[in-house]
Amino acid sequence: MENLLRKAVQTKRQFLINKLIQSGVYKKNNKHLYEWTLTELEQEYNTSISDNKKLIVK
User: Fold this and answer.
1) Which of 46, 1, 39, 37 is nearest to 19 (CA)?
2) Could you read off the pLDDT of 31-51 as tens digits, one per residue?
3) DSSP class of 30
4) Which residue range is the domain that position 34 belongs to?
5) Where in the chain does DSSP place strands (E)?
6) Which Pfam families does the UniProt record give (predicted)?
7) Is the separation of the CB atoms in 16 and 45 below 8 Å?
8) Can you give the pTM of this predicted structure?
């Protein structure tokens, strides 16, 4: 069970990192994406998605 959870977290982190890189985010506050926690990645991704929707609406 531990390995399954670990793999799920790693998969989600990699997905978010890839999406953020595609949107132009590589590092923030001198911290590379691979150093971020899952929570930090999720927050930045949600902010990025929100910002993109605002740009599309305008």
Assistant:
1) 46
2) 999 999 999 999 999 998 777
3) T
4) 2-57
5) 27-28, 31-32
6) Fur_reg_FbpA (PF13076)
7) yes
8) 0.81
